[in-house]
Design a protein that fits this description.
Layout lengths: L16 H13 L12 E6 L2 E7 L8 H11 L8 E6 L11 H8 L3 E6 L10 H7 L3 E4 L3 H7 L1 H8 L4 E8 L4 E3 L11 H11 L4 E5 H7 L15 E5 L11 H5 L4 E6 H4 L2 H8 L3 E5 L1 E2 L2 E2 L1 H12 L3 E4 L3 H9 L5 E7 L9 E2 L16 E8 L2 E7 L9 E2 L1
Parallel strand pairs: 3-4, 4-5, 6-14, 6-15, 8-9, 8-14, 9-10, 10-11, 17-19
Antiparallel strand pairs: 1-2, 1-3, 7-16, 12-13, 15-18, 17-18
């Protein structure tokens, strides 16, 4: 069946539908941040216990995952009529930037499909599963459904909201501290964790921090991963705009990539004019009971600047504000196995005064992984059961 098939021979001879779908999920994640406003999708062409083709949606406007997997399998001379196509999301049945994937699947002669979850987009014709079944393709739906839905949490948000999707990243010690009482924080977590954060930075359109982080750390907020062909915007939330003459990295080296979120009065001040004249963007946000209207800022980033994903790396108060305002869509928590034991050290979340444990903000675990001596948690702000995946 061709030499390339042997490249994908699996060591586990007892693979089931769930195993293959989880492999497709991993493939789909490679496209996160590049496919917007389309979803991230992964696909496998499988024969027995062998993977003959792999594909994922690499970038907006490029081939979809199903087409990539089919082409990969055909390059190895696979007989697709005896194969099963696994795909994390229902194949499209409409014309967009690319032709319908359903047509490509039928033309390829595939007779069996396994789909992770249905397409939630109400703005397209849809009906991919029904179309394929009407053409004689046997389709199973719902394998690893929750994992596949988590993959497209951003896509689902964009269907019902005008704002950007928010990754909230935290890095703390075992006792929940992000810095010592003096503000020293280098480094809380390991190099492996920091590399993973920079990989995420390479996929988002903006990195958000609070004013305290801006003034105390003087951050660059750049991506230093291997693929740093594009740099995210730097967004600073503060009602105390800096002096344009200040010695800040963002002002000296990245003014045209820097956005300040501030209150309306500050946004019309002389300092705002000076920052704007040097290339910065100053957005005046409405004020709410909880402070500045962060949702308005996220909407403006997407609608005015084309930012679909924002990574928040701010302090404890900003992190808590995003959770309380239901704006933290996905939480990446890096936990270092260290203990400071100082109640005056900076907390990973801060700003609440509650009396009962029932008032705690609850999260749902999606995934966890060991990173050296750190543990990474991927969580969602929902209450519910979820399978726990541990990778080493």
């Amino acid at each position: 069946m061709g030499r390339r098939i042997h490249e994908y021979m699996l060591s586990n001879k007892n693979m089931n539908q769930s195993d293959f779908m989880l492999q497709a999920v991993d493939l789909a994640r490679k496209g996160t941040g590049y496919t917007a406003p389309n979803p991230s999708v992964g696909a496998l062409v499988v024969s027995g216990d062998m993977v003959l083709g792999r594909g994922w949606h690499r970038a907006y406007g490029e081939n979809h995952a199903e087409v990539e997997a089919i082409r990969d399998a055909l390059a190895g001379k696979a007989d697709l009529s005896s194969c099963t196509l696994y795909v994390t999301l229902e194949p499209c049945n409409h014309h967009g930037k690319t032709p319908p994937c359903t047509n490509a699947i039928v033309r390829a002669g595939i007779k069996n499909m396994v789909v992770g979850t249905r397409d939630p987009n109400p703005g397209v014709a849809g009906g991919g599963v029904e179309f394929l079944r009407s053409r004689g393709v046997r389709v199973t739906v719902g394998i690893e459904r929750e994992k596949c839905q988590d993959l497209i949490a951003d896509f689902k948000l964009w269907q019902k909201s005008r704002r950007a999707y928010v990754f909230l990243k935290t890095a703390s010690t075992l006792d929940g501290r992000i810095a010592t009482r003096t503000g020293h924080s280098r480094w809380v977590t390991s190099m492996a964790s920091r590399i993973m954060v920079h990989e995420l930075r390479s996929r988002v359109g903006a990195v958000l921090v609070g004013g305290n982080t801006f003034y105390q750390d003087n951050p660059a907020l750049t991506c230093r991963s291997k693929d740093n062909s594009r740099q995210p915007l730097a967004v600073v939330l503060t009602t105390r705009l800096p002096d344009a003459r200040g010695d800040f990295f963002l002002l000296r080296h990245r003014p045209k990539q820097t956005v300040f979120w501030s209150d309306m009065a500050s946004a019309s001040s002389t300092r705002a004019e000076q920052l704007t004249s040097m290339g910065c963007t100053v957005m005046g946000l409405k004020e709410t009971d909880g402070g500045l209207d962060l949702e308005q800022g996220l909407e403006r980033l997407r609608q005015e600047m084309g930012v679909y994903h924002v990574l928040c790396e701010g302090g404890g108060k900003l992190a808590l504000s995003l959770l309380e305002q239901k704006l933290a869509d996905e939480i990446w928590a890096f936990l270092a196995l260290k203990v400071l034991g100082d109640e005056q050290a900076a907390a990973v979340y801060s700003g609440r005064d509650i009396q009962l444990m029932d008032q705690a903000l609850k999260l749902r675990l999606g995934e966890m992984r060991h990173l050296g001596n750190d543990i990474w948690f991927r969580m969602f702000p929902e209450v519910g059961n979820n399978l726990l995946t541990i990778s080493k």
